[in-house]
Write a structure and sequence with these properties.
single chain, alpha/beta, Rossmann fold, 2 domains, 9-stranded mixed sheet, 5-stranded parallel sheet, 13 helices
Length: about 375
Amino acid sequence: MFRLGLIINPLAGVGGRVALKGSDGAAIVKAARKMGAQPQAQARTRVALEEIQEFNDLFRVYTAANEMGQYLSEDMGFDTRVVASNEAGETTAEDTCNAVKKLVAEGIDLILFAGGDGTARDIFSTLKNLNKEESIPVLGIPAGCKIHSAVYAVTPKHAGELLYLIIRGRPLAVHEASVMDIDEDAFRHDIVKAKRFGQLSVPAENQYMQNMKEGGVEHAELVLHDIASFVIESMEPDIVYFVGSGSTPKAIMDELGLASTLLGIDAIENQQLLQNDVNEQQILAMLEQGKTAKIILTIIGGQGHLLGRGNQQLSPQVIRKIGRDNLLVIATPEKLHALNGQAIRVDSGDERLNDELCGMIRVVTGYDEHTLYRIEH
């Protein structure tokens, strides 16, 4: 019987939709809670585990107590063994590290975990201290605000599909994938300081696993200028445009001479700034005023994600209210070429919405230049 280790970071992603750009630290979690934020890890883990639910006689789940895996595993009817304790409610990095140690002692075959780069880093450090970072494979379910590491599946559904193949007997070839994390305090001031902490063994299935996020800044200034000029000339009066995140949308704000949030979402109307760094509730409040709105967004270089990575403020509720037809996707030709034919990805946290977003979409790649590119999830 396959021995599946499960760790859920219950607080993963809590800061995303309220534009706090992370969930590391008790103060940030408290602030996010005060703003009405809800963690996403349980729901995203459920999406993954639903792919193997009908085969629950082929595996046993070894997990941590309460929200770190026990509640969800038992609710889904899995044969569940609770091997690590923790306090119900708020958990800590120490709880994650303790769970890893207990799972290793149980001789599990694979660690499935839900979280962000901070969770991946905690798992790496613990396995490294046990000299197990190369011998125990891991598979990440993307649930945090920061997903720079290459230890995650493309989406929760991809994680489940890959887990299904493994549990059904697919030979588990592995390779080493980088564990990355960034300085959240710097991130909140639009500075990306990403650092590689080491490697973990992950399934060698490129169609299911995401690439490491590309670093650096796009230097094709002329192309960015052309994209920005075309988008600005195409803007309609009395429509709210939500712009961001990333350097490509920032080129539009720069061209307009407006203050911008490199790693957040800004709202403009009639080419004037309404508000910088808006969160989900602020966006929804603007939409409730009856405003017509559009979203200008780009893909993440090297990964191809359009939604679900660094822009959780654009929640399923926001996307549904604005509509797929009002998504304006911009990207330099280099970004599209770097995908090597892989699809643009959406990982909104709502599988039905992901399905609705799939298909061909027009991408602005220059001045009055467009490329039709497919979206998948």
